[in-house]
């Protein structure tokens, strides 16, 4: 029983070291997408809350000052 416990502990310890090595990526290799910001003035017409279990997305409907 002691050998089994020690073997399991050793395996888990070594596997955590392996996963830690795969997770480390140099900062120079990361891809950053630019953030685009848009401004809109208007009135909020409808807010829909999404539900991930049903696969629906959140939605925000805004009516601009010119009616669009």
Percent helix, as a range, is: 25-40%
**Which structural class do the helices and strands define?**
alpha+beta
Taking pLDDT < 50 over at least 5 consecutive residues as the criterion, the unreliable ranges are none
What topology, given as strand order, has the largest sheet? 1-2
Termini separation comes to: 73 Å
Query: Strand share of the residues?
Result: 15-25%
Q: How many β-strand runs? A: 2
Shape: elongated
Order of helices and strands: HEE
Reported for the largest beta sheet, the result is: 2 strands, antiparallel
Mean pLDDT: 81
Whole-angstrom Rg = 25 Å
Written account of the structure:
With 68 residues, this protein is an alpha+beta fold. The chain has a domain at 1-25. Helices cover 32% and strands 19% of the residues. It has a two-stranded antiparallel ribbon. The N and C termini lie far apart (73 Å). The model has no long low-confidence stretch (mean pLDDT 81).
């Amino acid at each position: 029983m002691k050998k089994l416990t020690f073997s399991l502990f050793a395996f888990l310890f070594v596997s955590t070291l392996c996963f830690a090595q795969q997770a480390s990526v140099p900062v120079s290799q990361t891809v950053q997408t630019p953030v685009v910001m848009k401004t809109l003035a208007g009135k909020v017409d409808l807010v829909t809350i999404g539900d991930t279990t049903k696969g629906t997305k959140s939605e925000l409907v805004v009516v601009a000052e010119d009616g669009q």
